[in-house]
């Protein structure tokens, strides 16, 4: 993957257009460490819209999704889960690592992400039947490489899927300028992939020990390739006018 040219449409451009079009069911998939979750939580929300996050694991229960009873000073209170809070307030539900959800939770999430007409939920205490409020949006994220790895029952509810193959431009700005091109290229470099989180940790370490030592500590055998690549990128970024007369 090369650094985008001025007129190239990137995955992030596509994501912004999808949100601007009012699409309310989106899957972001692709390599880890590219800013999928951060962008799902924050990009192009409507004024006052809140985000509610779920991170799926094998041990996750439906209490996280729809709610359950928790101890209180008066005994037990029913506390609504992230999906119900998002539905009630017309918020944005962000479901991370959807491929890690267990069977029961997955089935509940299918209901919570269905169309507004089909996504009825009955409160277990009051019997109140609720439907998603206008503005309710669901963005799911996953690190699977191919969308076909996800169950069809899920992808059928999410006709818009965007493969995120590079770090978000705002995230790249947290890195030194001469690193950004390399970090962008390496996000989707197969077995040689280097996540944005790795670059951010490496950057913090350079404040204490410099680039060479930090790279050796974190990257080991790959340190020389990294250092050479950023030197080349740094050389390329120098304006031609500085070489006049050489």
Tell me what you see in this structure.
- 39% of the residues lie in helices and 17% in strands.
- It is of the alpha/beta class and 246 residues long.
- The strands form 3 sheets. A 5-stranded parallel β-sheet has the order 2-5-8-1-9.
- A hairpin with a 2-residue loop joins strand 3 (67-72) and strand 4.
- It starts with 10 loop residues before the first helix and ends in a 10-residue tail after the last helix.
- The relative contact order is 0.16.
Compact description:
By secondary structure, this protein is of the alpha/beta class. It has helices at residues 11-20, 36-42, 62-65, 82-89, 103-112, 152-155, 169-172, 177-186, 196-219, 223-236; strands at 25-29, 51-55, 67-72, 75-80, 92-96, 121-122, 129-130, 137-142, 160-163. It contains ten helices and nine strands.
Task: Give the secondary structure arrangement, pairings included.
Blueprint (H helix, E strand, L loop, with lengths): L10 H10 L4 E5 L6 H7 L8 E5 L6 H4 L1 E6 L2 E6 L1 H8 L2 E5 L6 H10 L8 E2 L6 E2 L6 E6 L9 H4 L4 E4 L5 H4 L4 H10 L9 H24 L3 H14 L10
Parallel strand pairs: 1-8, 1-9, 2-5, 5-8
Antiparallel strand pairs: 3-4, 6-7
Helix pairs in contact: 8-10, 9-10
List keywords for this structure.
single chain; alpha/beta; elongated
SS strand fraction: 15-25%
The number of E-state strands comes to: 9
Strand arrangement in the largest pleated sheet? 2-5-8-1-9
| Low-pLDDT residue intervals, each spanning 5 or more residues | none
Please provide the ordered H/E string of secondary-structure elements.
HEHEHEEHEHEEEHEHHHH
Biggest sheet layout: 5 strands, parallel
Global shape: elongated
In DSSP terms (H or I, runs of 4 or more residues), the helix count works out at 10
